[in-house]
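Consider this pair:
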Amino acid sequence: MLNLERAFEMAGGSGELPFLHDYCRNVRGLGSLPALQKHLQAGGSVLLDDIGRLFRACESSGLRKALHRELLPYASSIRGVRQNMKVLSDLSQAHTELLFSGQLDPKFVLVSSKRKRSSVDLAEQTFAATEASALARHDAALKVARQLGEVRDRMVASGEKATLARIAEQANADGLRTTRGSLWRADTVSRALKRLKEAVEQAEASQNDA
């Protein structure tokens, strides 16, 4: 639909583009597409995103050739965007044989399928992305804080005084880094352990509520 609308605009068309809808899972001839047949018989012209779409639902090359013979009287009225706006009668023999073969890729894009989104949609998308990013950063920081807490607990278990400076020194020696890949300092250790304490208290409160 977007291909057709874009081609209509490029051809200098104005106003709303009229659409003719017809569908058949197994096209055995023009009679399988009654809406199209009636339109052509009435002298109407047709713009398709791809002329090959008419033949793609035919089960065999023989049926495609038979459909082509039925369409020949209207060949100058059937135009395809994918065929550079050529009418069916202007296609080369080689191109026509490709239509009969059914080998053409059905995917064809003249214009992106991405429609312009409303400001509300964009705002909701931005909010969701920001929220997800914040959650990911929080989870990463909490994971590192737990590792830092393990360093502290090992120091305490060994009888060593676990000052903030010593925890930072030991964490750096163990290869542990902050979420930004930096070495630990006393102040960053303090913030991380505070985050860990708050998480533990929150988990305990949730268990008590349950």
User: Anything to note?
Assistant: The chain has eight helices and two strands.
